[in-house]
Amino acid sequence: MIALGIGCRRGVAKDEVLDIVREALVRVNLGGEAMALFSVEDKHSEAGLLAAAAELRLPLTFLPRAALQDVEAYIATPSPHAEAALGLASVSEAAALAGAGEGGVLILPRIAGDGVTCAAALGDER
């Protein structure tokens, strides 16, 4: 399973999320694996994120901050912005790793677009 972690600024547009997810999918070079989107629970009301998930027809799961903190030792690209705003070393990479489950491996470190970030991790199907 490919877990795509998404971080975004408040009020991000659907198209910005779509663009970064599509770029991540090109870079990951999928082989038919199941996919899902993950973010931190603080983003549960972001209309652009919700609309992008619906358009992509991918499940979107919001994880508690504690789940993201549990995998911080495995992130590759700490984010000063995420640290200042949420007290997390990363949103996109940590959400991808936490979403991938135990033993998940980061296969695409954070990439950034206009107000949105995305990372991918490979894990066992949830």
Task: Explain the overall architecture.
- The protein has 126 residues and is α/β, with parallel strands linked by helices.
- It has a single domain, classed as Nucleotidyltransferase, domain 5 (2-Layer Sandwich).
- The protein has 5 helices and 5 strands; from the N terminus they run βαβαβαααββ.
- A 5-stranded mixed sheet has the order 3-2-1-5-4.
- The mean pLDDT is 92.
What spatial form do the alpha-carbon principal axes imply?
globular
How would you name the oligomeric state of the polypeptide chains in this document?
single chain
Low-confidence stretches: none
Q: What does the average pLDDT come to?
A: 92
Stated plainly, the CATH topology is called Nucleotidyltransferase, domain 5
Give the percentage of residues in beta strands: 25-35%
Strand order of the largest sheet: 3-2-1-5-4
Structural class: alpha/beta
Q: What about the largest sheet?
A: 5 strands, mixed
Distance between the termini: 8 Å
Q: How many structural domains in the coordinates? A: 1
| CATH architecture designation | 2-Layer Sandwich
CATH class placement: Alpha Beta
Secondary structure layout:
Blueprint: E1 2-8, H1 14-28, E2 35-40, H2 47-56, E3 60-63, H3 65-69, H4 80-86, H5 92-100, E4 105-112, E5 116-122
Parallel strand pairs: 1-2, 2-3
Antiparallel strand pairs: 1-5, 4-5
Helix pairs in contact: 1-2
Q: Concise description?
A:
This protein is of the alpha/beta class.
Keywords, please?
five-stranded mixed beta sheet; 25% strand; 126 residues; 37% helix; alpha/beta; single chain
